[in-house]
């Protein structure tokens, strides 16, 4: 894919359905009683992996013009899969399925592609084992994941890492455990599960630093409208700040407070950001308008902010190259174990474009402003690296070449078509 410097950027657009909400809508619908309809489901490879796994356990999905209907099997209605469950490239699928499958009355095996098979699964397996789950990992860390389902017992567990995937896995396992499962500690990650489970009729107790769920609660089918993905919108919001005179309006996106950290950072950097909420339950949804009339300035992203913008950090690093002063991102160690080592991937490509920067275990620092020069971009088959450096290409001198652009299908299949429309 070849991308040239843009002379303009702007317009009104929508982005695909939120990936996190899409995964959860399918899984919760699958273990509900009755039929759920999911509208604006993200049509991506990751979400397809979740659907394929559920289909192999007997869940029926029916397409109609309004979305996807999920014919629920009830809490204990899933069937033993005839073959292994392929999670593709989706860490969400694998980690959340570990929690769902640990308490089933059958055994299962989760596999993934080469990239997923290098990502850590112990963070989910260890607390699940403390609930009595029988889980075997390759080299005690990686997929394939072998699970021998059994009745679980409840735990009072302190989360060490702010991971929405692990938190969701444990809450699902709690439905199949005896008594009450309590989670403490780093529970402040994305809260889509905590918002959506009550929408399906599950009672959760929530207080600062604490979540609890009772076992054996049946889910009731409901209809879910998936909001637009704010992590996908971030690429257009960043482009509007980078291209001189740029502005963009993104409609129908999630404005969940656990997902809007990027908007707060844009404001600190000097961008003009307007939000208008139109729907409030179960997820706040609305419109965001962004422009940067007076240029950008550097900022510090603190560790406590990282969970709310973890997927936006690659494009934030691109923004930092065009901001006056120093931008530093701290406490982002999680990026080292994403689809690729995203800190290293960002550094490799920014340096190829002529940018000087510092990297450290938990982040990076960039002094701006720096001239970007077109260069061959290595995506490392990571969708967010591909999209972040497609945005960088809009302000680089020359023609930038993106390798393996097809990897954007993981989360945003129409990314390049939308990019072409917004730069015209």
Can you walk through the features of this model?
29% of the residues lie in helices and 29% in strands. The chain has helices spanning 19-30, 45-55, 91-102, 122-130, 164-175, 192-199, 230-242, 261-268, 313-320, 342-352, 383-393, 415-422, and strands at 2-4, 10-14, 32-33, 35-39, 60-64, 67-71, 85-86, 107-111, 134-138, 142-148, 152-153, 156-159, 177-178, 180-185, 204-207, 210-214, 219-220, 224-225, 247-254, 272-279, 285-291, 296-297, 300-301, 323-329, 357-360, 363-368, 376-377, 399-402. The chain has 424 residues and is of the alpha/beta class. Strands 22, 23, 24, 25 and 26 form a five-stranded mixed β-sheet that branches. The longest helix is centred in the middle third of the chain and has 13 residues, at 230-242.
Could you give the distance between the termini?
A: 17 Å
Q: So how many helices?
A: 12
Classify the oligomer.
single chain
**How many extended strands?**
28
Structural class: alpha/beta
According to CATH, the homologous superfamily of the largest domain is Enolpyruvate transferase domain
Give the uncertain stretches in residue-range form. Answer: none
Q: How would a crystallographer describe the biggest sheet?
A: 5 strands, mixed
What brief labels describe this structure?
29% strand; 4-stranded mixed β-sheet; 29% helix; UDP-n-acetylglucosamine1-carboxyvinyl-transferase, Chain; 5-stranded mixed β-sheet; alpha/beta; 424 residues
Give the structure's gist in a few sentences.
The chain is α/β, with parallel strands linked by helices and 424 residues long. 29% of the residues lie in helices and 29% in strands.
């Amino acid at each position: 894919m070849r991308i040239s410097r843009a002379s303009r950027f702007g317009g009104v657009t929508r982005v695909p359905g939120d990936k996190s909400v899409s995964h959860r809508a399918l899984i919760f619908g699958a273990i509900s009683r009755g039929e759920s309809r999911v509208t604006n489901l993200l049509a991506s490879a990751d979400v397809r992996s979740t659907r394929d796994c559920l289909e192999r356990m007997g869940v029926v999905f029916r397409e109609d013009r309004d979305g996807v209907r999920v014919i629920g099997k009830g809490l204990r209605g899933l069937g033993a899969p005839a073959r292994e469950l392929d999670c593709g490239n989706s860490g969400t699928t694998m980690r959340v399925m570990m929690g769902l499958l640990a308490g089933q009355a059958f055994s299962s095996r989760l596999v993934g592609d080469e990239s997923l098979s290098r990502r850590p699964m112990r963070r989910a397996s260890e607390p699940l084992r403390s609930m009595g789950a029988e889980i075997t990992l390759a080299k005690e860390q990686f997929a394939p994941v072998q699970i021998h389902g059994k009745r679980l017992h409840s735990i009072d567990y302190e989360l060490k890492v702010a991971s929405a995937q692990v938190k969701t896995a444990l809450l699902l396992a709690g439905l199949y455990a005896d008594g009450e499962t309590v989670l403490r500690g780093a529970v402040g990650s994305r809260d889509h599960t905590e918002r959506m489970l009550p929408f399906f009729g599950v009672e959760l107790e929530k207080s600062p630093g604490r979540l609890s769920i009772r076992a054996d609660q049946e889910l009731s089918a409901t209809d879910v409208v998936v909001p637009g993905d704010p992590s996908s919108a971030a690429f257009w919001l960043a482009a509007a700040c980078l291209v001189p005179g740029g502005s963009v309006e993104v409609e129908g996106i999630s404005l969940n407070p656990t997902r809007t950290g990027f908007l707060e950072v844009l404001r600190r950097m000097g961008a003009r950001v307007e939000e208008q909420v139109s729907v409030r339950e179960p997820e706040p949804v609305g419109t965001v308008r962004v422009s940067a009339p007076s240029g950008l300035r550097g900022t510090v992203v603190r560790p406590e902010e990282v969970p709310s913008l973890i997927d936006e950090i690659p494009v934030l690093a691109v923004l930092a190259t065009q901001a006056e002063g120093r931008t530093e991102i701290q406490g982002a160690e999680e990026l080292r174990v994403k689809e690729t080592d995203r800190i290293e991937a960002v550094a490799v490509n920014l340096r190829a474009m002529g940018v000087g920067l510092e990297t450290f275990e938990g982040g990076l620092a960039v002094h701006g402003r720096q001239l970007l020069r077109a260069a061959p971009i290595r995506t490392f088959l990571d969708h967010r690296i591909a999209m972040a450096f497609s945005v960088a290409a809009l302000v680089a001198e020359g023609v930038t070449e993106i390798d393996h652009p097809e990897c954007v299908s993981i989360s945003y299949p129409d990314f390049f078509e939308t990019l072409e429309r917004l730069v015209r």
